Structure formats: C-alpha cells, structure tokens
Amino acid sequence: MYVNETDLVVSFKIFTKVQKKNIAVLMGGYSSEYEISLNSGATVVASLDKEKYQVYAVHILTEGWFCVIDGERFTIDKGDFSFKDASAKKVTFDACYNTIHGTPGEDGKLQAYLELLGIPQTSCDFYESAMTFNKRDTLSVLSSYGVPMAQSVYVNKGDEIDMSFKNLLAIKVGYPCFVKPNRAGSSYGVSKVYKEGDLIAALDNAFKEDNQVLIESFLSGTEVSVGVYDFGNGAEVLPVCEIVPDGDFFSLEAKYSGKSQEIVPARLDERETADVQGLTKGIYDLLGLKGICRIDFIFHEGKPHFVEVNTNPGLSKESIIPREFKAAGLSLAEVFGKAIEVAIRNNS
After folding, report:
1. d(CA 111, CA 328)
2. Which of 29, 31, 33, 227 is catalytic?
3. Options 32, 47, 129, 310, the catalytic residue
4. N or C: lower Cβ tally within 10 Å for the chain?
C-alpha cells in the first residue's frame, strides 16, 4: 500500500502530540514566600519546551489546590493529584516541577505525598528536604564534618530571655549578630542586631515566621551563592555568584527590589573559586541532595563559611540560579527539561 510523505508527517505529528508528558509546575505554598514562588513557577512554565510537554500551572495555596488555565481555576483532587478540565476530562500528571519555597514544597511534606502517589518530582526527597529546611539540623550535621560556619544559639518561642541567656549569647555569638527564623527563606524575619537592646524586637520579628529562631555570629567577608545540580552524571557546580547588597546584608528588599548586585562570575581568585565550588559539591553529596540546589557562603578570614542550603531556589528573573545557568551556557528550557526527565527516570 502506498503512503505519501504528507500522510507520514501528519501521522508523526499526531503521535508526537499524544506522547507529550503532562507536567504540573507546583508554585505558591503556605508561607510568606508564596508570591516569590509564583514568580519562580511562572518562569518554569514559560521556559519548558511545549513541543515535549503539556505544561500546567498548579497553585498550592492555603485556600486550596488549583490547576490554573487561562485564569480559570480547576480544583485538584488530593486523592490522586488530578483534576477535571473544562470538558470534564480527568487530567493526571507524569511529573511535577516543584518551585514552592517554604512549606509545604520545600520542607518535605509535598515530596512525601507525591512519593506515596508514585508521582516523580524534581526537588530533593522528603527527608533531605525536611532536614535542610531546618537550619539548626543542617548546621548540626555539617559541623560534625568540620564545615566552617558561624557560631550559633537557638531559641524557641516562649523561652525566657533572661540575663543568663543574654550573657551566653554575648560570650558565644557576640554583637553584631543575625537573628533569623529557623525554618523560613528569602530573608523573611531576618534582622541584624547591633546591641542587646535591639534583641527582643528582632526575636519578635523572627517569631512571626517560625516558633524556632537561630541567632548567629556576624561573619565579615564576601558573600557568595553557588548553584549545584545532578542530572544523572554526578554533581555539577555552576559559576559562583558574588552578592553585594546596598545595605547591611542581603535582605528581602535587597533580593527582590534590585537593591543589590549579583555578579557572575564572582570576583574571586582561582583558589577561592575552587575552594567554594569544592565545598558546594561536597555538601551536596554529603547531604544526599537532588535536583537543582543553591548553597550560600561567606568568605570569612579567607575561608568559605557555610550559611544555608536552598533545595528549591528562586527561579524568577531576579534570582541567582538563572544567571548562573546563563553564565554556564545552559538554557532554562534545557535545564528544566533535564530536571524533569531525571526525576521520571529515577522514579521508574
């Protein structure tokens, strides 16, 4: 039987269309970072190859979970993470691209839920996500391996801030110091405290975000942030980004209002660059991380000191990771696509 070339091309396109994977891009969340997450999610939705993927924006919000199509909300069935579209057709997902900063997408809750349903997702597994979202626990693990870091003291909401505590803080941490929520990101609730008289106000600010607070000694030096990922061939480290805030530190306003400089590649010498990239890879492997992560450091007395790890780093146009991928010569469409394919392969 004769089949002309036009028919073959049409048949191939139909077959290709049918084979598109349904990808849910998870965004939003329950924390103060939800608007930032919506921006990150929008970047992923816009960047993913529409020839390969049928991309859906899924908003995980306190008022409900919704797939948003042309401004219309379709409620997600939490029983199997599906929804019915405008034609009442049930839509399920082959994988999720997780861009939620904070709870429930960065602290392991969604990861555990999706694992139970057998749906692959792009960020770390639930335990690693929960552990790294807790700054206190992460510092405890890494300090046992000799990773340089600031001195710290922990406070729970309701603890008495008496003179013995203040004396311990002055001796172990000193002033100035940083007061930050233990489980929060994007510098929400973070204050730089110069004297004891400002401590209570800073604690109250941090307790708005979390009932556990971390107080860290001030590290003087160049602040850098380093992206790292594993797409199946071992951890790969991105070019280093140097952060130069206009104010005292890399605050929420500095991060998202353009009041800082993010310089890629960082103005480090070869040894400093090798040191911080090597430490980044070591921490990524040591903690058993997956997907695209970002690890922050401060060069204090010539040595990179660990600050924190972000397992769902920001991906909006103001964010560091997209700049580092660009400096590495990698497109976001390529990077996000590989993250999805690796997640699917690891789940099979």
Report:
1. 29
2. 33
3. 310
4. N
